[in-house]
Design a protein that fits this description.
Two copies of one chain form a homodimer.
Chain A (H helix, E strand, L loop, with lengths): L2 E4 L6 H12 L1 E6 L2 H8 L12 H11 L4 E6 L5 H11 L3 E4 L6 H4 L3 H25 L4 E7 L15 E5 L2 E5 L8 H20 L2 E7 L1 E3 L24 H12 L1 E5 L5 E6 H13 L7 E6 L2 E4 H14 L5 E5 L17 H5 L7 H14 L1 H4 L24 H6 L13
Parallel strand pairs in A: 1-2, 1-4, 2-3, 4-5, 5-8, 8-12, 9-11, 10-14
Antiparallel strand pairs in A: 6-7, 11-13
Helix pairs in contact in A: 1-9, 4-6, 6-7, 8-10, 8-12, 10-12
């Protein structure tokens, strides 16, 4: 098998599965639907319908792409034996690893949410590393990280190691990490683990530091039933998605503070194209390659302006409302990022943010009945300063089904 | 309560418990004896007897130090509710956090050992952070890290952040980390988590980057029954301890490669004194303080020479045998470390390495019957290049008792 995609039920995972199945004729995918469960657990939902499970989605895909096949494996990647069995079965040339708890606010809800996020992400990534070393040692691990690993340093964010001079001596060091949530921290941990696996086992890996992804469409979505999930609530949604939903729900965009927090962005289609390009152009045997994957840099105020403008063109008037930033982050800062590897491989963005935002608003409007009744969930409900945001977010499923082995009640002596 | 010590059944934990109980009149301690179980699980044992459990050790301590009390809590710090209950009960001014899987070779045995090490260490540390924030928000977290977090950079290892200039811009960044095992990686993860808790919650913390500790004695060991554990096997022992045991067992010291791997060292008594000094001189409210805790720097060949020389004086002749380094590490490298905070607080080493080595050889000789039959375990049996060293290290207990929730068998489709 050419490729396995881990986390294929997710926002990026599903379009990636379709892309690879379309290009290669077949692909194997893995998920345990935990994102669906965790989203529902805190009162969220995908704003667009996505079908019952991956088997149904895969069948539907094959109907629209005759002769192309998506093989589905359902299971928990925290289990080393499961991961080993999957990798051994397919011995893929590339594993696209997107299977992580990927929400910063979720990781900040409470102790148990932080614990779940970090142990889940570290465990799944570690299991993948070991399974690849054993069963496809020359395979390419294409791992999803985040630009959020770097935080907002006062120096340029390099792509890979940087050579520094300090007190008259030189060294090559990892570009500094200063992540902004327990989730982002977990991704830094994964990065360190992969870099180490490269050092001791010459693991061939691409570590993708990805910007914030927005948009609802990719080329393979030729049928309504082939859509990917879209999260618009305060916990699972990202900034542009939330603005688009706020526009429709309230004619009002909520801006954190002055909106000068600056990040890199790219569209869903561009993200898929970049990942495919990286899969097609793997690093050398034994090479560890870090890629900063983004298109353009915006601050959150500029993004609100774009959504407001496109919204107005489509008949949605809107105002801005300034609210307190629920996160702890620098409100004004320098931000410059080196991102040269993807353009060198031929990456060029397929569309403008304006076009994508127009499509998103249109899709969200068409599926309003799926998410409108949950529109109160778009308001921030997780504050970084609090250790227990769980009062309004019961997380029953999480408490019941995860953290086994950690949740036993030990007695404290009287 | 002035202090809680987490991991008090360990090599440093127990003497630290005695020191604090002696100085403060009382101390609370926590352990779940997992180190005893994991050591036995791979065929090791403490070379010195340490009593049945902490309750027995605490009783024995009070017999020899009348009026001084060690309160014992037994439980697994991976459980958030247990950690919260303990911290809530005692609301300590300082928590000395020593409760970690602390063996690099153990973490490299196999996938499950790496998984256990990283999830255990991240979970316990995260639970402590949350519990302190909730129940003793101005308390001082005195957390044990390791000099191994830094690896062997080609620049000086600073104590805390360093100001760098890069492409004409300046920033303060964490001193670079390049850890050399899945265990060392887990300690880096803990460091990032504590630094983050400081950033968002103003957590008051001291992060101790400790050198390699050697020795068998501290001032409170006025009775045989008050000894601490000593590990001399290839998995759980550290270099000087292993040399001393090899001297007695085989009259032969095993040196990895050229023995030019250079590290910082300090004696057990000095480690205890340093930790107590840091507890007595906490960082400011809201301050995150990184301390490089070591006395002197040696390479592993120099250490072998010291053990050989002292051994000869005591009647033990010995030769050197060069063996392959089981680790993946730089065989020759620059090594310079800033360590100014502890001397500034008044730290001065209490004895020479020669005196400590003499005491260690003497103690190991006196208790030879406890460990001699397991002397084959002093030879390296875990190789960094291998993903499965478990063939000779069955780890039955680990497989049975840990990783619950991860070890379920998921089916891979035919």
């Amino acid at each position: 098998m050419k490729a396995i995609i881990l986390g294929a039920d997710g926002y990026i995972g599903w379009p990636m599965a379709m892309k690879m199945a379309n290009e290669y004729g077949e692909v194997a995918v893995v998920d345990n639907y935990v994102t669906r469960k965790l989203v529902a657990d805190v009162g969220g939902t995908s704003a667009l319908p996505i079908g019952k499970d991956l088997k149904q989605r895969a069948e539907n895909f094959s109907k629209h792409f005759p002769g192309k096949k998506i093989y589905v494996e359902e299971g928990d990647l925290r289990s080393p034996s499961f991961v080993e069995a999957v990798v051994k079965k397919y011995k893929p040339e590339v594993i696209v690893h997107l299977a992580q708890q990927r929400s910063a606010p979720y990781s900040q809800v409470s102790a148990i949410h932080a614990l779940y996020t970090q142990t889940n992400n570290v465990a799944t990534n570690l299991n993948v590393i070991y399974a690849m070393k054993k069963h496809t040692p020359k395979g390419h691990l294409l791992k999803m990280g985040t630009m959020g690993e770097y935080g907002t340093p006062n120096i340029v964010i390099e792509e890979g190691n940087m050579e520094i001079e300090y007190k008259g001596r030189k060294d090559k060091v990892m570009a500094p990490r200063a992540p902004g949530s327990f989730y982002h921290l977990s991704k830094v941990f994964d990065t360190y683990n992969v870099a180490f696996a490269n050092r001791i086992w010459s693991m061939r890996a691409t570590d993708v530091m990805q910007g914030v992804v927005y948009g609802t469409r990719t080329e393979e979505m030729i049928d309504e039933g082939l859509r990917t999930r879209l999260d618009i609530d305060a916990i699972w949604g990202t900034v542009i998605n939330k603005y688009c939903a706020q526009l429709i729900a309230w004619n009002k965009l909520l801006i954190y503070g002055k909106g000068l927090m600056t990040r890199g962005f790219l569209s869903l289609q561009d993200s898929i194209n970049c990942l495919f390009l990286l899969a097609e152009n793997p690093p050398e045997e034994g090479e560890y390659r870090v890629v900063n994957q983004l298109d353009k840099i915006y601050n959150t105020y500029q993004l609100a302006e774009i959504v407001q403008k496109i919204g107005a063109e489509m008949g949605y008037k809107s105002t801005f409302e300034t609210i307190e930033d629920p996160r702890v982050e620098k409100q004004e800062h320098y931000y410059e990022v080196t991102h040269e590897i993807l353009p060198r491989l031929g990456f060029a963005p397929k569309s403008t943010m304006e076009e994508q935002v127009r499509q998103m608003i249109s899709d969200l409007a068409a599926y309003k009945k799926y998410w409108y009744r949950k529109r109160d969930r778009i308001k921030p409900n997780v504050y970084w300063k609090d250790t227990d945001n769980a009062a309004s977010l019961k997380s029953k499923w999480l408490l019941k089904h995860t953290g086994k082995g950690y949740a036993e009640d030990f007695k404290v002596s009287e």
